[in-house]
Amino acid sequence: MIILEDVYYKYEPEGIEALRGVSLQVSEGEHLAIIGPNGCGKTTLIRHLNSLLLPASGKISVGGLDTKEFKHHAQIRSLVGMVFQNPDNQIVGMTVEEDVAFGPENLRLPTAEIKNRVAESLARVGISGIASRNIENLSGGEKRLVAIAGVLAMRPRYIALDEPTAFLDPAAAQRVLAIIDKLHSEGVGIIHITHNMAEAALTQRIVVMNEGRVYLDGTAREIFGKAEMLRQTGMQLPQITELMIKLKETGLPVRTDIVSMEDALEQIIHLTGKIKD
């Protein structure tokens, strides 16, 4: 489990307080989305989860290890893998397989083990066929998958992803989301920052950040059922949720805590039956 207790963090010398008393728990194997307006502290939060940033006050423990203890950093970073918004910020190899091998090589693992991990990680994200390709010749979506494979080669228990579908075309975004869902089904904990409310709706739990604090925490249905609170942060609801709210405002007896087209269709079929009656 990852546990944050009353965590504060300030960027110096600007004096920008990015986290203000954040308390949160993430269970192993959980699929969690973190959403919120720009500047709310989402990226700062997840960079604390593998000791890239350390709290100014408060405490964070990962698998019982205190992130402030330097002696634990290597183990914590093996437990929580980080995929940055821009994959170029973490890709270091000339070829795909060189990059995926970088982490295990730094662990000084035997050559045979490194090769096994590289092959396994590439297969898990479906890019075994581009192992020898030069990084410069990859698409944005392929680079995202290489970054995920590099993290998987460290065999983490959690992966924290910062806007993993940003700037991707719909097909590439769906491919990345399918891989994330597959990894979760295999038992990897997923912590997923996104501005896309439809993506957030696919997760088990949503945490809404606002002004450096946890503003809301619950299931997608619970969160989207608090439309006015979300609007106060400047965030947009999924279009299907907005549609059901507008139908409700006309006097139709529909639920507004809608998270998918299937939910909306069920409501409309139910409503149609009532009208016929």
Provide the descriptors you would attach to this structure in a database record.
alpha/beta, 11 helices, Rossmann fold, four-stranded antiparallel β-sheet, globular
CATH class of the largest domain: Alpha Beta
Query: Major sheet, described briefly?
Result: 6 strands, mixed
CATH topology of the largest domain: Rossmann fold
Rough outline:
globular
Identify low-pLDDT runs: none
Helices, by number, come to: 11
What is the rounded Rg? 21 Å
Strand-pairing-aware structural class: alpha/beta
Distance between the termini: 51 Å
- Report the CATH architecture of the largest domain: 3-Layer(aba) Sandwich
Mean pLDDT: 91
Oligomer: single chain
Count of all domains:
2
Helix share of residues?
A: 25-40%
Strand content: 15-25%
Order the strands across the largest sheet as they lie in space: 6-7-8-3-9-10
Q: Secondary-structure element order, as H and E?
A: EEEHEEHEHHHEHEHEEHHHH
Number of strands: 10
Name of the CATH homologous superfamily of the largest domain: P-loop containing nucleotide triphosphate hydrolases
Describe this structure in words.
- By secondary structure, the chain is of the alpha/beta class.
- It folds into two domains: 2-237, Rossmann fold (3-Layer(aba) Sandwich); 238-277, no CATH class.
- Helices cover 40% and strands 22% of the residues.
- The protein is built from eleven helices and ten strands.
- The protein has helices at 42-48, 73-79, 96-106, 111-124, 140-152, 170-185, 197-200, 220-224, 227-232, 239-249, 261-276; strands at 2-11, 16-26, 31-35, 57-62, 65-66, 80-83, 158-162, 189-193, 205-210, 213-218.
- It has a six-stranded mixed β-sheet, with helices on both faces. The chain has a four-stranded antiparallel β-sheet with strand order 2-1-4-5, covered by helices on one side.
- Helix 6 links the parallel strand 7 and strand 8.
- Helix 3 packs across helix 4 (111-124) and helix 3 (96-106) runs parallel beside helix 5.
- The longest helix has 16 residues, at 170-185.
- It is globular.
- The protein starts with a strand and ends with a helix.
